[in-house]
Amino acid sequence: MAKRGNYHVDIDLEWCKRCGICYAVCPTSTIKRGEMDAPIVEDHTTCIGCMMCENLCPDFAIDIKVVERVG
Ligand code: SF4
Ligand code: SF4
User: Fold this and answer.
1) Best substitution site from 46, 64, 67 to test ligand 2's pocket, by max atoms within 8 Å of Cβ?
2) Of all residues in the chain, what percent carry a pLDDT higher than 90?
3) What CATH number is given for 5-62 in this structure?
């Protein structure tokens, strides 16, 4: 999937129940498994905006924000 912009991966850890779906499905490993199974994002620039994490999170804890569109 081509990258069409730059994104910011916003994760609300107050809503997140640490199910692990987001870092299991993320095709670019932008979301990683952190301490106590909490999702962490160290580098937002690798996100391709596929929205799988946002769509599959059972707690609606993820919001992919478009920082800048490319092309
Ligand atoms: S999919 Fe949602 S609830 Fe599950 S670990 Fe990721 S952010 Fe948390
Ligand atoms: S939108 Fe896609 S690439 Fe970006 S963090 Fe979510 S699953 Fe990973």
Assistant:
1) 64
2) 87
3) 3.30.70.20
Instruction: Compute the mean pLDDT over every residue in the chain, rounded to the nearest whole number.
Output: 95
Ligand 1 mean position, distance from CA 3 (Å): 23
What residue owns the CA closest to ligand 1's atom 2? 57
| Domain spans of the chain, in order of start | 5-62
Distance (Å, rounded) from C-alpha 33 to C-alpha 13?
13
Q: What does the pLDDT read at residue 4?
A: 80
Q: Taking a C-beta distance cutoff of 8 angstroms, is the pair 53, 62 a contact?
A: yes
Which residue positions in the chain have pLDDT lower than 70?
1, 71
* E strand segments, the chain: 5-11, 31-33, 39-41, 62-69
Which of 1, 53, 54, 65 has most ligand 2 atoms within 8 Å of its beta carbon, as the pocket-test mutant? 53
